[in-house]
Amino acid sequence: MILDLFAGPGGWSRALHVLGQRDVGLEWDQWACKTRAAAGQTTIRTDVAMYPTWPLVGRTRGLIASPPCQAWSMAGKRLGLLDQPLVHAAVEDLAAGRDTRERILTACRDARSLLAAEPMRYLYALHVVGEPDWVVMEEVPDVLPLWKQYAAVLRRWGFSVWCGILNSADFGVPQTRRRAILLASRVRTAHPPAPTHARLAEPDLLFGPGRARWVSMADALGWGATDRPVPTVCAGGGPGGGPEPFPSGSRKSLSDARERGTWTPRPDGVVLQSRREGAGWAARHGTRENRGADGPAPTFTAEAHRWSWSLRSNNQTNATVRSVEEPAGTLFFGHRANECTWVAEPSAPSTEIADAVDAPAPIRITAREAGVLQTFPATYPWAGNKSQMFSQIGNAVPPLLAGHLLAPHLGVTLDADDFTLAA
Asked: What angle, 0 to 180 degrees and rounded to 10, lies between the N-to-C axes of helices 386-395 and 30-38?
């Protein structure tokens, strides 16, 4: 079997399915297990820290591990960094066959920190019988020193090992999600996959193919192919005199407007820039509330009816804001402050006076859209309420990145077209 520790909602499993393989996932979260069941993935609902290793010995050819990142992530309190020496000690002991987890856990500031040591418990038990053939592990960048400790142990056991930081956008994921990766193999030289994408497109060269431009959110979500659409708001009404596609306060999804035919290609020459929050529409022009009932309204001419849409990563003042023409930043959820929202600004504001049109209200990203930006199919069967779905999506490994990491170990060629983003 291929054993998937902390399997989550199925990022690795989805990649294996596309590559013609299956895994057995160990996962505790009930909603992630329900999602996996709906997706047809084999799952044992269990606490990875409590599950015995003996049923796996003699049956495991590959091991995947993505320990929970909450203790280490920048989206949380990052107590894992304070607990890191304790986690290193636990890994050292487990690699020698000494289980000191119970004693070490009492000293941890965040109990989840020690979960990053759990893969070594499984690896030690399997190593006794010469298993597994290969190992792939993934975590947030701050866990890289721990992966280097794992690498040293695995090399002593006869593995070829590589570990480092990879950017998901370099592999066709519409998201600049950076992750610490460990790749190890008993049967081949371990090295990272060759990037397929770059910030700017690169031409083919004599010694190899070039790289495509990073996949934008607009590309991934199907909001236009060569002409990337943005919502259009006409002063005094929508196209043909109809209602405005996004009246003030609207919470409709962007896809609703596209289906109603109110989307048009962005005007030539408009360049949408990546930026930090702080110089937005409300800051420059005010809102209806702080302008007062009698205050002047923002105005547009007939040449400035288009809104440029961006994804704001959370509710904090220093939130990353990315244009739909770019990959998203790292998606993380699980707290009200971490809600991702679509925000609009006029792409070409005018100083001339025209009919008043307020900027569309921020629109929360849908689970479907967030899943697609993680390279799950749009029809992926997320289980639970919105909060539970978003939590699963934020914690998942992008299947397309997982496919690039797994394909060499499986001896298969990855076809990125099999990971259809918007279908």
From this structure: 80
